[in-house]
Amino acid sequence: MSKFIIEGGVRLKGKVNIGGFKNAAVAIIPATILCPGKCILGNIPKIRDVNVFLEILRELGADADYLDNSSIYVDATNIKSCYLENGLSKKMRASYYVLGAGLGRFKRASTLMPGGCDIGERPIDQHIKGFEALGAKVEITPEGRINVQAEKLTGARIYLDVVSVGATINIMLAAVYAEGRTIIENAAKEPHIVDTANFLNAMGADIKGAGTDVIRINGVKELKGCTYKVIPDQIEAGTYMIAAAATKGDIIIDDIIPKHMEPITAKLKEMGMGIEEYGDSMRVYHYQELVPVNIKTLPYPGFPTDLQQPMTVLLSSLPGESTVVEGVSEDRFRYVEELKKMGACIEFTKRQAKIKGTDKLKGTVVQATDLRAGAALIIAGLIAEGLTEITNIQHIDRGYEHIENKFMNLGAKIKRVED
Ligand code: EPZ
């Protein structure tokens, strides 16, 4: 078990390079299952979730590994079925993409209920609704195994009752080879939906409308291997933007798509931060006292739920009151108990936090309760007086590449200690 020790009080300065988008990578890697050929994927973050997915693919029979620090290859030719035997599926949420991809290529797939961050109820009824509309039978056993199978997949019109990233991607995967046209209405519009559709199209799929709330998929007969580069991680970039604001810093964030950052850029500007965009980078700088704002998380292009925790830390360090409403996840404020140990003054329910800002956060021992909560606690540690010790950092390693090195390069005093 490792932990982070952080000495607070440094204003971040310098440049940080952003890696490939975790949530795109963990959709695109299983999407390779659909293709009996070799794919080369670039801009892949070196994080635990990617390692787990490579293990899953090898378990299923693929030849898959890193080519270098940021690219991998997957040759799924030898996968014969998508029955995931072991508990790897429990290690991450995105393991459920094996269902859509397996259904698409083999007309059947089976895995255990997925794991991932514990942020409240995360049902998969919309995935099931989509698979069934395409003609599949779905069974969930008492042990939590999900079996999907179909004689034949036929395109259908599917209206999602909830805007779901996972269901949108899973249905796209399952529909790529379905006969005729599939239409997903009320689809999620996140950048990684577009990235996954672009990757599928690069293999030969026929998907239009990704990035809008109506996606049309015309079934194709075959896919071919390709080379593809994953988009930059919007959430990693947003984490450093918020860290710059919290530490009153001045940093350059490189290798990003500024357009994807708009929901965060808009809020930070409203608070008084300076933000300048240049092509694929941006300068985020503090030049005046910041004012608190209210936040409501929503599906893209709303403020992302995955940055709710870092933003709550920032707001809790500013004099004044603010409210954060969680409009996406069921129960994503549990980490606030950890923040309160550091002196934050926050009242919360499952869906809402009322914050009374204080500039007196104090270092203590806290634990990362999930991935983004972990990143938020690092930011809290950077602005707290004294030393902060963060335990359970395996959650952070699931989704942030070299996080302590990146923060150290910005001047932060943070070190990883093996317990
Ligand atoms: C993805 O999770 C991300 N994970 C999450 O990121 C992110 O928080 C979330 O999208 C929202 O943006 C990955 O991409 C691997 P959803 P996902 O399906 O697909 C409800 C991180 O920190 N819902 O869009 O599981 C659900 O309960 C992680 O990187 C249903 O009711 O999210 C939730 O309240 C954490 N029925 C909401 O929709 C369904 O069938 C959004 O879920 C599916 C979802």
What do you see in this structure?
It is a single chain. The protein folds into 2 domains: about 1-20 and about 230-419, Enolpyruvate transferase domain (UDP-n-acetylglucosamine1-carboxyvinyl-transferase, Chain, Alpha-beta prism), CATH 3.65.10; about 20-230, Alpha-beta prism (UDP-n-acetylglucosamine1-carboxyvinyl-transferase, Chain). The longest helix has 13 residues, at about 50-60. The mean pLDDT is about 95. The protein is globular. Strand 11 and strand 12 (about 215-220) form a beta hairpin. Helix 1 runs parallel beside helix 2 and helix 1 (about 20-30) runs parallel beside helix 3. It is built from 13 helices and 23 strands. It has a 4-stranded mixed β-sheet. A 4-stranded mixed β-sheet has the order 2-14-16-15. By secondary structure, the chain is an alpha+beta fold. The chain binds ligand EPZ. Ligand EPZ binds next to helix 1, helix 4, helix 5 and helix 11.
